Amino acid sequence: MKKYSLPLPAAGLGKEPRPHKVLALAAGLAAGAALALAGPASPAAHAASGTLGTAAADSGRYFGTAVAAGKLGDSTYSTILDREFNMITPENEMKWDTTEPSRGNFNFGPADQIVGHAVAHGQRMRGHTLVWHSQLPGWVGSIRDANTLRSVMDNHITTEMSHFKGRIYAWDVVNEAFADGGSGQHRSSVFQDVLGNGFIEEAFRTARNADPSAKLCYNDYNIENWTDAKTQGVYSMVRDFKSRGVPIDCVGFQSHFGTGGPPASFQTTLSNFAALGVDVQITELDIAQAPASAYANTVRACMNVARCTGITVWGIRDSDSWRTGENPLLFDAGGNKKPAYDAALSALGGSTGNPGGIVTGTVYSLVDVAAGRALDVPGGQTANGTPLQVWDSHGGANQQWRASQNSDGSYTLTNVGSGRVLDEPGGQTGNGTRMEIWDANGGANQHWRATRNGDGSYTLTNVASGRALEVPAGQNGNGSPVQIWDSNGGANQHWTLT
């Protein structure tokens, strides 16, 4: 795989070369425009149950991978691709150095090979990438006249998008335009240096004219942590674009993480961008050494944000990864599923014996959707019978709950601070019964069924009473009690697990 030197966008990963990624998540391949822009799954993609693609499709999302045209002849590679993934991103085949190596001379052959494979197997495409400072032919980089560069850029966008029109779900129109570090400003590039700040808007407006049906995305790395200056710079740009009617439909978060996985604020970042009125997508996911919990947390962050429309991993097997020696993907070099695969599938709600999508052994904070506050054991109170409440989330051990799956498919939730479990008092099953903590005893009153809701949250139903965990309607303040009540689908009975 081609490499270029850029700081790796990951929490705790430091800096190292990272590969040029092509077409991030191509979502819309089809024999015609109708197939290309069709819904989340096709009959071919649903041929096998319990796969990443089908599990994601159950919530209207996709699960994709980056693909190299030269590996499609590898039967192990292509078998996994067609079984597991319903979205494809070309690794390098849609980038400028491949598609227009000399001015006005276009080569779409390698990309057409990938698109043709996707069409044949009912997978969608995501185009990556149209305007990027890297993998750029020397003839483009040497242009110093603004009118010439603007004409070249607009022609490249229009010609490539027109070639694939109707077959691409979303395009990464501009890739990695913001600088690393604390400036929050654009990086130096031929486009920035010759055309100025307006080149990004110019690219998006040109792209909309070229293919009005494709979603238009901005894609970048190291924008996953909410407080980082680079994240804030991209956020300000998207907010400005939306306020002025500049056509932007989505933001891609590359998500190249270290062994610790996503930053604690990752879901907040996704939510805040989505609140601007754009879709958010995880576009190039890989995690050093592929810890199961880190993959689960990343997938769960997407599932908890309604406008997070899909996830793409950057490669299929560890041997296909640009991160040599880091084994960051879901399949080993032999094509075998790793523990991270099961964790990702479970977090999607897939059929791994874990229907709620909750990963055994993982510690969560449970936040009530209506109240926006976390399930809390009052500070310093750890005894049996301590009543539960909601309180502003602060990450303390008294707000952390370790999930373990029971033989009946339900879960026991153990509070980290007290070592005691979420408990419905024995024999008390009526509406309004307040929940407490108690020593684990394996009883049905300590078992909770988890059901995924359409907004990515969960309804937690007690096995003994058959009633749902809730914050009483209209009681949203700190210290509000937590009780059980007949399930009614209200936001006060929806809990996000983060």
From TrEMBL:
Q: Where is the composition biased (Polar residues)?
A: 478-498
Q: Name one Pfam family in it.
A: Glyco_hydro_10
* InterPro entries referenced in this protein's UniProt entry, alphabetically: GH, GH10, GH10_AS, GH10_dom, Ricin_B-like_lectins, Ricin_B_lectin
Ranges for region Disordered: 471-498
- Which Gene3D superfamilies has this protein been placed in? 2.80.10.50, Glycosidases (3.20.20.80)
Q: E.C. number, please?
A: 3.2.1.8
* Spans traversing the lipid bilayer: none
Q: Which reaction does it catalyse?
A: Endohydrolysis of (1->4)-beta-D-xylosidic linkages in xylans
Question: Active-site residues?
Answer: 284 (nucleophile)
Where does the signal sequence lie? 1-47
- GH10 domain: which residues? 46-347
Q: Which UniProt keywords apply?
A: Carbohydrate metabolism, Glycosidase, Hydrolase, Polysaccharide degradation, Signal, Xylan degradation
Q: Which family does it belong to?
A: Belongs to the glycosyl hydrolase 10 (cellulase F) family.
- Name of protein: Beta-xylanase
Species this chain originates from: Streptomyces longisporus
